[in-house]
Design brief:
mainly alpha; Neurolysin, domain 3; 2 domains; 3-stranded mixed beta sheet; 21 helices
Length: 493
């Protein structure tokens, strides 16, 4: 038996632990009793520790190093190099430290939920401080010359550095901020339906209707309610999503659902031969976000998407009975300053990401303390979006990411939107996307995404896949130009 074949046996055990942990996390965020959170966190820590032991065992490392010398195809080679890198990143971390870190993340997420519901940053602050300290500690065990935050950026988007993101946000800021000011200066009134009261039952029925439209099958997925929308990958045939329902903001559940279906579709269309391997789920975060933002904004907020379904949608949602399709399209694309990132419109959204990126970078560089974080957040928010943040649940506590130590993740949201714009342009060169949507034929779009992007899983990084699919290197041009063209038309500028 070759070294690679022996590694696959160990990899199967790791996949089993990952499945168990994913299931426990899903239950904890959806249907599990909150009182059981502490016990679950302890047991998840034990499972994580056992998985850590298998991953970092000398036998595993030896097998991977031996396998790297064997004749391998491209997928096997990527599997070995990616897995070896992942192991070497953590192999020197003491097991008790790793277990403590995983347990801390689980407990911190539970505390974050409480802190947010009580609008009390002080409850979460010591956990955030500990998460930052332990993240730096974990990073310090790596054989890397990168700073802690640079390493985190690279973890989420291979090859990206602060200099890359600084340049990216600078270009977006230079071109979009003055354009956003023009849009806001138009002072067009918001359609009333945006804030109309829509029952959770009506929203659930609408989500149930949209699922098959998006080719999202409940035979291979599930839809649940949670505080913060997310998607979970269990296997090629089990990719679940959650939705948050706000009765005074119907569009929140619609586009959170479409967004998460984008993630789930990506995971569900990876080559089945990759099942259980690292490469089946090692896509960069920018690439993953490109698929959720492409579906949410470039498909889900178009007239062509809604036109075949709008009459039926009106029969479900009473508040839309007298709202024309054109009014609906303008409303779902309406631009206004917003406190909440996940509720922000497509145009102002990157400013929310820029804010978080700057704060994360400062926290890890030591130029900002957790004590001062809320006040600096509020000051920058006022500068970028001209709004006064008056409560932590609408400010520094609104996102779940930091409670899970997902530092370095936020910048990929903006990057993903830009990736998505380039992929969308490439797709339109091959198929007529508008015609497909008008004919309620999402299947042809899903197939294009599978053929050109999804099937490869984590075989390529973002820059390489952009070059492969779009035949040109990554830039912000498609993203920025597309936004300006779209909103110039909507606002008649």
């Amino acid at each position: 038996m070759s070294a690679y074949e022996q590694y696959l046996s160990l990899r199967s055990k790791i996949a089993a632990y990952q499945l168990a942990l994913a299931t426990l996390h899903w239950d904890g965020a959806t249907i599990a009793p909150k009182q059981g959170a502490s016990y679950r966190a302890q047991k998840m820590g034990i499972l994580s520790g056992e998985m850590f032991s298998i991953m970092t065992d000398e036998k595993t490392i030896s097998l991977l190093k031996e396998a790297s010398l064997e004749e391998l195809d491209d997928v096997q080679r990527k599997e070995v190099t990616q897995s070896l890198k992942n192991i070497l990143d953590v192999v020197n971390v003491p097991k008790e430290t790793y277990i403590e870190f995983v347990s801390l993340q689980s407990e911190a997420e539970h505390i974050w939920e409480q802190a947010k519901s009580k609008n009390d940053y002080d409850m979460f602050k010591p956990y955030l401080q500990k998460l930052i300290e332990m993240t730096k500690l974990i990073i310090s065990y790596r054989d890397s010359s990168l700073s802690a935050y640079e390493q985190l950026l690279d973890d989420f988007e291979e090859g990206m550095r602060t200099a890359d993101y600084d340049a990216f946000f600078s270009e977006v800021k230079e071109k979009l901020v003055p354009f956003i000011a023009k849009v806001l200066d138009a002072k067009l009134p918001a359609p009333a339906f945006i804030s109309a009261m829509v029952s959770e039952d009506e929203q659930r029925r609408l989500i149930d209707y949209l699922a098959p439209v998006l080719e999202y099958s409940l035979e291979t997925g599930a839809i649940a309610k949670s505080i913060h929308p997310f998607s979970s990958h269990f296997s090629a045939h089990d990719n679940r999503v959650t939705v948050r329902y706000l009765t005074n903001q119907m569009t929140s559940s619609i586009f959170a659902f479409i967004h998460e279906v984008g993630h789930a579709t990506y995971n569900g269309q990876v080559n089945p031969a990759f099942e259980g391997l690292t490469v089946s789920q090692s896509m960069t975060y920018g690439l993953h976000e490109s698929q959720s933002r492409l579906l949410e904004n470039l498909v889900g907020k178009t007239k062509a998407f809604w036109q075949p379904h709008y009459e039926h949608v009106q029969s479900i949602v009473t508040a839309l009975k007298d709202v024309s399709l054109d009014e609906f399209i303008f409303g779902i694309n309406y631009v206004e300053q917003s406190f909440i990132r996940v509720e922000a419109d497509e145009l102002t959204y990157p400013l929310h990401i820029m804010l978080r990126y700057e704060l994360e970078k400062a926290l890890f560089e030591g130029t900002l303390s957790v004590d001062d974080l809320p006040s600096v957040w509020n000051t920058k928010f006022k500068e970028y979006l001209a709004l006064d943040v008056t409560s932590d649940d609408h400010g520094v506590l609104q996102d779940v990411h930091w409670s899970g130590a997902a530092f370095g993740y936020f910048p990929t949201y903006a990057l993903g939107s830009a990736y998505g714009a380039m992929f969308f342009d490439a797709m339109n060169e091959t198929i007529n996307v508008e015609e497909a949507l008008l004919n309620n034929n999402f299947k042809v779009i899903k197939e294009w995404l599978k053929e050109n992007i999804h099937q490869y899983g984590g075989l390529y990084n973002g820059k390489d896949l952009i070059l492969k699919v779009c035949s040109k290197p990554f830039s912000a041009q498609s993203y920025v130009d597309g936004l300006i063209a779209k909103y110039s038309a909507l606002y008649k500028l």
